[in-house]
Structure formats: structure tokens, C-alpha cells
UniProtKB/TrEMBL annotation:
Native species: Dokdonia ponticola
Xref: InterPro entries: Resolv_N, Resolvase-like_N_sf, SSR_resolvase
Classification of source organism: Bacteria, Pseudomonadati, Bacteroidota, Flavobacteriia, Flavobacteriales
Keywords carried by this UniProt record: DNA recombination, DNA-binding
Protein known as: Recombinase family protein
Domain Resolvase/invertase-type recombinase catalytic per the UniProt entry, residue ranges: 7-116
Domain of life: Bacteria
Leader peptide range in chain numbering: none
């Protein structure tokens, strides 16, 4: 009997449209997350990106779409380059983490952020 393939959604974000090479920054985040998924045998079901949005509150346009997706589809992981892509506020991050846990979703970062 084969192992069950885990399913994930991928989220990328850059805070400023003025950031040099925005599309490159998003692509690097995405590639790093895809590499982690491949390494762990995780299937990426969908991906979401926010560009030019400061994520202090944690509920940006595509992040809200991601949350809606998770409520409708069985997802095991949320892949992010780092936890601060979700929110730079520790309180908001914890709130979102708890919300995701209610749906059985674990946040899986490529790199560990020392703040969150």
C-alpha cells in the first residue's frame, strides 16, 4: 500500500511594488517552496501571491482567497518562504496559525524567521 500524498497551497508576498525585481522576488520564493514540496513529497494544489501589500494585519487580497480555498478543500500544509510572508506581527501570525490549525493546516516555511 502506497503512502498518502500530502497536499499544500503555496503563498508568496512582497511588501512593495517599488521593490526591485518584484516578479523575480516572487519567483524565487515560489521556486524555494516548490523545492521544499518536492523534497518532502508534497503536492502543491494551488498558489497565491500578493504584491505591494504590507501584511501587518495578515488578511491581504490573495491571502483571503487562500483562506477561502482552505475552507473548501482538504489541505495539509501552507508553504511559505518564511513565516513573515504571512504577517510581520507576531500576534497576527499566531491568530492566523490558530485559524489554519482548525482546518488541519500546518504552516511549512522554507526558512525559519527568528521573530515569529
Amino acid at each position: 500500500m502506497g503512502s498518502v500524498v500530502k497536499k499544500a497551497v503555496l503563498y508568496t508576498r512582497v511588501a512593495s511594488q517599488a521593490q526591485k525585481d518584484v516578479s523575480k522576488a516572487i519567483q524565487i520564493q515560489k521556486q524555494q517552496c516548490e523545492s521544499l514540496a518536492l523534497l518532502k513529497g508534497i503536492n502543491i494544489a494551488d498558489s497565491f501571491s500578493d504584491i505591494g501589500i504590507n501584511n501587518e494585519k495578515g488578511y491581504t487580497t490573495d491571502f483571503q482567497k487562500l483562506l477561502n480555498y482552505i475552507t473548501k478543500e482538504k489541505v495539509d500544509y501552507l508553504l511559505v518562504y518564511s513565516k513573515d510572508r504571512i504577517s510581520r506581527s507576531p500576534n497576527t501570525y499566531k491568530e492566523i496559525e490558530k485559524q489554519l490549525e482548525t482546518f488541519g493546516v500546518e504552516i511549512l516555511p522554507v526558512v525559519v524567521s527568528p521573530i515569529l
